[in-house]
Specification:
The complex is a heterodimer.
Chain A lengths: L1 H28 L23 E3 L6 E3 L1 E4 L18 H13 L4 E3 L9 H10 L7 E6 L9 H15 L4 E9 L3 H10 L3 H11 L2 E8 L3 H9 L1 H4 L3 E5 L4 H8 L6 H10 L3 E5 L12 H10 L5 H10 L4 E6 L4 H11 L7 H14 L22 H13 L12 H15 L25 H16 L4
Parallel strand pairs in A: 3-4, 3-10, 4-5, 5-6, 6-7, 7-8, 8-9, 9-10
Antiparallel strand pairs in A: 1-2
Chain B lengths: L4 H22 L6 H9 L2 H6 L3 H14 L2 H6 L1 H10 L15 H17 L2 H7 L1 H30 L15 H21 L2 H5 L2 H10 L5 E4 L9 H4 L6 E2 L4 E2 L9 H5 L5 E4 L65 H7 L5 H5 L5 E3 L9 E3 L12 H5 L10 H4 L2 E8 L5 H4 L6 H5 L5 E5 L9 E5 L9 H5 L8 E11 L1
Antiparallel strand pairs in B: 1-4, 2-3, 5-6, 7-10, 8-9
Classes of the chains: A alpha/beta, B mainly alpha.
């Protein structure tokens, strides 16, 4: 209780201080990568009965607008004997809390969290009645070794076992568009897996069939052209206020969310939204931009804007968020219980924020870990996170004449050693490029690592 | 009660020196060296090694004027013994003992022979200042760094960049063992017999002792006042007062001035010649507070914090092993291995200040205790000239960043069978990419094919041997490119 009181006082304090103080408060919250709290959020009681729901066109099920992404479960400090890295107790706690507050959509995959996500999610959900939750998982046969029908079937059946369920509510072809048409044909068409999944839907073991899309737009268009035949129940796309108009600037290979959702609406297919925060980057806006949002809503988190944005589209079924910490879950519940749709002015503010944001030299990494493990031991996402954090926090001096050069240099270099062990830093990248094709954001990983390495080298030599 | 001013001056100066010298070895950021670096440079043996004539002459003149004040206020090992000696609270615990001349002169002779024969490791072993350096850098520095790392941990939690973590590692087991043995021997000797080490083993003590016999200012006993009670002798940590004969062995007296107050009769004076006495009141100094130095020993526990970074999806990284180098590498500024081994007194000051974890004490027999360069943990970075700034002995002479980056201390050698291009069938080129002088180029194995893999070719004329390639080579535990040292450094 005392904790709640403390936070409330802080909110009151912010109100008293007015705009100027608010902007400075935002400096603490806007870019704070490591801090658990997204800051500035009022800690009043979260209602358990106010979650906003959408009706699924296919089944008529009520789906919570907040969907739980199971890709970023909390990890143990050291893995268990069987290699399991997930902190099961923490997962149970998060899922219990989410279900209690009305979340009923859980999205996982056989490859998430080094393959341990389905198992951990299954264990936690097993403790709840089956009608309280819906499960989405994917056929994640990315590796060419799993393209065969046998290996794909094995992966499919394994998901039922891991999740401990008789049927799967939402089944997805995973990461369509990565690897272009060749990968689509290899993974789903030639081996008959797509036909198989359609049959499974008829038999009721799958309730909804859809796909998640990244990358090559021709594959997206192709699959939608099959809609009359297959009847996609839903499609999972990346949507956020940056990707709306600027998807290409963030990632050459991506397509504006405006087009994607338009195509889905035409066919009356509902969208499941992934990356509403652009991998957390919209929770860690550059200080200046975070301050602008805070001016509008001092006691709402920066992240809440992105969630309200994604939820404001009629065609959206649910918005996924990979919530590692209770604070994230609570913050998101506040955004959606109930959802307050954005006004036109607020839409404009966010598009304006997006336009300004792409001016910052940020790297589009969402920390999805698909590129990992790097065979040479580099912690790729951590390097990018550190870099982005420094850019956001204005600890990215371009010149040694910068006013804050000395402090910024120190923060960048010391922070680098803290965030990434020396042996896992960018200077150990040999450019073998085994990572890039795993990246859903199409980041040219070796090039970016070398760019960061050169920058670090200049800072170290004080030549910036 | 009149306080003995000489003793007070001695104690203040000594405290200043030992605190500063200790910090000099503990401060891994190198910021103190700008202020305190001169203190290492006025140490006797390092000054001799550096042929720093001005300092040698000054020290000799000071000794001829005032006796072995060097031993009581400048030599950190001497002051260190005085501090340890205070652990023994027993009053009047010393007694006169005759100087063991053969031992003193044997060690001095050993030092001289080693010096002229260029056996640096023997000099390093005997030099008191270096022994102090080894003790601090091997035994106290890790404790200090644990404290620092605790602060760094807290700073990280507080989002502050005031402190950063320092990796603690065993640089050389042999040197650590020598430092530990030296420390134990010193503790035993100092607690039992005060300055016994200085007057039996220390060659600098012997050398200065020989001079101090003839010093102008001395402690003198006024025989007319002395009643031969022996109180002074029982309080003389140098065990040099023979109260029965009313004589003092001036080769052993370290000019601490403790005896002056001890004498009830005022028979002891520090003066040019025997003068008429002025009665001095007795000052009881036995209850002076201990120096707070011991406080630094009670630091945080020495457990190295586990890396808190999640390790789930990360490939295991094997530690690098030291390759066999036919010729050792010595840092830029050393000019040649011969100059380096001749002058280095093994004080570890450069080792403790090296921010790239490149320097560590050698394990070679002839260069034992003297540092050498290796690149398993880092490489000799272009912007750093720390070791050359701090070396008091002239083993590493001051060198500018520009000169350093054109000084060839070795050259890189490619080992085909280790290279990931061969073993992992990938393209790499990390060595070429990080070479600060552009000495490595990647060339096609098959010049006719555009798809051909590229292998590193070292231009030994441009290579300066900094070890960036060796350190950043992905091949483990042995790098596919390593640096072979040069006997004589040259400018490229």
């Amino acid at each position: 209780m005392s904790d709640i009181k403390k936070k409330t006082n802080r909110r009151d304090f912010l109100k008293l201080m007015g705009g100027g103080a608010v902007a400075s408060a935002a400096t603490f919250s806007g870019c704070n990568a490591n801090s658990l709290s997204r800051g500035g959020t009022s800690l009043n009681e979260i209602p358990t009965d106010s979650m906003s729901y959408r009706n699924a066109n296919s089944t008529g099920n009520k789906v919570s607008v907040l969907g739980y992404g199971c890709m970023r479960w909390p990890l143990l400090p050291t893995p268990k004997a069987d290699g399991n890295v997930i902190d099961q107790e923490a997962v149970n706690e998060l899922i219990d809390y989410a279900i209690k507050h009305g979340v009923n959509y859980f999205d996982t995959s056989p490859v998430y969290v080094q393959g341990f996500s389905e198992g951990a999610t299954g264990i936690a959900l097993k403790r709840h009645p089956r009608d309280k939750f819906m499960i989405a998982t994917k056929l994640s046969n990315f590796s060419p070794e799993t393209w065969s029908r046998e290996a794909s079937l094995k992966m499919y059946h394994n998901s039922f076992e891991k999740l401990q369920v008789e049927y799967i509510d939402y089944m997805l072809l995973h990461g369509i568009g990565m690897g272009g048409m060749d990968a689509l044909n290899g993974r789903y068409i030639n081996n008959g897996m797509l036909d198989f999944l359609v049959e499974e839907r008829e038999s009721g073991r799958i309730r909804n069939l859809g796909f998640s899309y990244h990358g090559d737009i021709s594959v997206f268009d192709y699959l939608l052209s099959m809609h009359d035949e297959i009847k996609w129940d839903f499609v999972q796309i990346q949507l956020n206020y940056v990707d709306w108009h600027h998807a290409k600037e963030v990632n050459q290979r991506n397509t504006n969310a405006e087009y994607l959702i338009g195509e889905l609406s035409k066919r009356d297919i509902q969208a499941v939204i992934m990356e509403p925060l652009l991998g957390g980057r919209l929770a860690k806006l550059p200080d200046y931009l975070a301050g602008k949002l805070k001016q509008q809503e001092p006691d709402k988190s920066v992240a809440s804007w992105a969630f309200r944005y994604a939820g404001s589209f009629d065609n959206v079924l649910t918005v996924l968020s990979g919530m590692t910490y209770m604070e994230h879950l609570q913050d998101n519940l506040r955004s959606y219980a109930p959802l307050q749709r954005l006004t036109n002015e607020e839409f404009e503010l966010l598009y304006d924020t997006a336009t300004k944001m792409i001016e910052y030299p940020l790297i589009a990494c969402t920390s999805c870990q698909y590129c990992m493990p790097c065979p040479y031991g580099i912690d790729i996402p951590s390097v990018f996170q550190h870099y982005n954090r420094c850019v956001c926090e204005d600890n990215y001096p371009s010149d040694n004449q910068d006013i804050n050069y000395t402090e910024a240099r120190r923060a960048f270099l010391i922070g680098y050693d803290r965030s990434v062990p020396k042996l896992r830093q960018a200077n150990h990248c040999i450019g073998c490029d085994q990572c890039s094709h795993h990246c859903p954001q199409a980041i040219k990983i070796p090039q970016e690592l070398m760019r960061i390495d050169n920058y670090v080298e200049r800072l170290k030599q004080d030549k910036t | 009660m009149k306080i003995n001013r000489l003793r007070q001056i001695r104690r203040i100066t000594a405290t200043f020196f030992i605190v500063a010298m200790t910090l000099l070895f503990l401060d891994f950021t190198g910021t103190l060296h700008g202020w305190m670096g001169w203190m290492a440079k006025i140490q006797f043996l390092p000054a001799v090694m550096a042929i720093n004539t001005g300092i040698i002459i000054s020290l000799i003149v000071i000794t001829l004027l005032f006796g072995r004040v060097y031993c009581s206020v400048i030599c950190p090992l001497g002051i260190f013994q005085d501090i340890i000696s205070r652990i023994n609270k027993k009053k009047n615990r010393f007694k006169y003992s005759k100087s063991i001349l053969w031992l003193r002169y044997t060690t001095l002779a050993m030092l001289l022979i080693a010096f002229f024969a260029g056996m640096g490791s023997i000099v390093a072993l005997l030099d008191p200042y270096s022994a102090f350096g080894r003790i601090i850098s091997n035994i106290f520095a890790p404790i200090y760094q644990c404290g620092n790392n605790l602060l760094a941990y807290l700073a990280e939690r507080a989002d502050s960049y005031a402190f950063y973590e320092k990796e603690i590692w065993m640089k050389s087991l042999g040197t650590f063992a020598i430092a530990s043995v030296t420390l134990i021997v010193l503790i035993v000797l100092a607690i039992k017999g005060g300055r016994a080490y200085c007057n039996t083993i220390c060659p600098v003590g012997t050398l200065l002792g020989t001079l101090s016999r003839y010093s102008i200012y001395k402690i003198r006993i006024d025989e007319s006042r002395c009643n031969g009670c022996g109180l002074c002798a029982r309080n003389c940590k140098a065990a040099c007062i023979n109260s029965k004969n009313h004589s003092i062995d001036y080769s052993e007296c370290v000019a601490c001035f403790n005896c002056i107050d001890k004498c009830n009769k005022g028979a002891l004076r520090y003066e040019r010649s025997v003068k008429k006495e002025i009665a001095h009141e007795r000052v009881d100094s036995s209850r002076r507070t201990m120096l707070t130095f011991a406080g630094s020993m009670i630091a945080a526990s020495a457990v190295k914090a586990q890396e808190s970074k999640m390790d789930g999806g990360l490939a295991f990284i094997e530690d690098k092993k030291i390759p066999k180098r036919n010729t050792a590498i010595v840092p830029p500024g050393a000019y040649s291995i011969r100059n380096f081994t001749r002058r280095c007194t093994g004080c570890q000051l450069c080792v403790s200040v090296c921010p790239n974890q490149v320097l560590r004490p050698s394990t070679g027999l002839s260069t034992f205790l003297q540092p050498e360069v290796s690149y398993e943990r880092g490489y000799c970075r272009p912007e750093c000239t720390k070791c050359s700034e701090v070396c008091p002995a002239g083993a590493i002479l001051p060198i500018s960043q520009a000169d350093k980056s054109s000084t060839q201390i070795g050259h890189a050698v490619w080992i085909e069978k280790n290279c990931v291009i061969i073993t992992d069938d990938v393209s790499c080129g990390n060595c070429a990419r990080h070479c600060p002088t552009g000495a490595i180029t990647m060339i096609e194995v098959n010049p006719d094919s555009l798809e051909s893999k590229t292998i590193p070719i070292v231009n030994t004329e441009r290579c300066i041997g900094c070890g960036a390639c060796e350190n950043l080579c992905p091949s483990r535990p042995f790098s596919a490119i390593y640096v072979e040292g040069h006997n004589m450094h040259k400018t490229v």
